[in-house]
Amino acid sequence: MGSSTFIAILAAIASFFIITLLFAITYFICHITRKNRQNRRVAESRPRTRAVRGRDASTSVVSVSESQLFDPSLNKIEMVDLVNATRNFSPDLIVGDGSFGYVYKARLASGATVAVKKLGPDAFQGYREFKAEMETLGNIRHENIVTFLGYCATGSDRILIYEFIEKGSLDQWLYDTSSIGVATSARLPLSWRTRVNIIKGVAKGLEYMHNLDKPIVHRDIKASNVLLDAEFEAHIADFGLARTIQESHSHVSTQVAGTMGYMPPEYFHGVTAASVMGDVYSFGILMLEVATARRPNLRIKDNDGKEIRFDEWAMRMVSQNQEMKFLDVRILKDNLNEKEVLEFFNIATFCICETPKSRPSMEEVVKLLDQILDETTLSDSI
């Protein structure tokens, strides 16, 4: 084989290898490019897939919890209706700021004026509050308990709808503060007679709750949780801490609930079970607060300059027959029946006895208050 033939063979082999190499490089580049495109498409699709799954899971959780939690007889109101009624929850419509969220004054499409309580973003507390209100307030009706009208549960939003109570909270009327939703010029000092009637209304509401087949313990009776209507009739509100007693005496709880100054002393001695007698104690403190216009959570200086608790101070004043001296100074003393005032304080101190068993039931309290009113009416007619 001649040299020319050998060179031709080498050239052919070289050309083949070069062509094969170019083809391999081209194939490799195309393969890598196609792989990268696939990876990008997968990567781009993953967040959307997870988001869809997250929404599906969330929707599933909400629907399951709703089906287990909500009584089908309760009125469910759609979010779109509440958005329209509150102008998308406008700050201008806020009439209250509770421990678990804002309260808005709203007008539904039906024309009804209502209070809309939108729970805050704290999911755990908000859910517990929502559940407690639904389990207790949702199925009871009484003239001295705020009327529950419906609810809305959409995603993480939890909203409760109530009748709108015109005059706002008792707290706003006892203290000289600029209150949301109540004109300052309209807030004149409450008369003694009005205060006694308000207390009587709260007592009747608690008596009703405590005597149900499954008694309800409110656990947070205080001035800001008592609403006043146009006639200054009392309506107990805010059942977020309320519990239904399944047995006959108490609801087992591992956490202390309530507001400082109103909580019964047994809570601080390690007895955390919710009982009707805890409500009775808080009610007694409320009676003293209504009469004196002093906040129960603030300490008071005695004659020696020592700071003591509100309940301790009240008991001391009663034991020294000083009731008339520590009435709210804004109460007109003209024609004030001193005997009625003394009886009022006696009932209050009876309710705040240190030992729960020594306190009266709310049924007894209502009877005692009735006696005061009857005696006063009789004396006024003579």
Could you characterize what this model shows?
- By secondary structure, the chain is an alpha+beta fold.
- The protein has 2 domains: 61-164, Phosphorylase Kinase, domain 1; 165-381, Transferase(Phosphotransferase) domain 1 (Transferase(Phosphotransferase), domain 1), CATH 1.10.510.
- It is 45% helix and 13% strand.
- It contains 9 helices and 13 strands.
- The protein has helices at residues 3-69, 79-85, 123-136, 170-174, 192-210, 276-292, 310-319, 338-351, 362-381, and strands at residues 94-98, 101-107, 113-119, 148-154, 157-163, 216-217, 226-228, 234-236, 243-244, 250-251, 274-275, 300-301, 307-308.
- Strands 1-2-3-5-4 form a 5-stranded antiparallel beta sheet. A two-stranded antiparallel ribbon has the order 6-9. It has a two-stranded antiparallel sheet with strand order 7-8.
- A hairpin with a 5-residue loop joins strand 7 and strand 8 (234-236).
- The radius of gyration is 34 Å and the shape is elongated.
- The N and C termini lie far apart (151 Å).
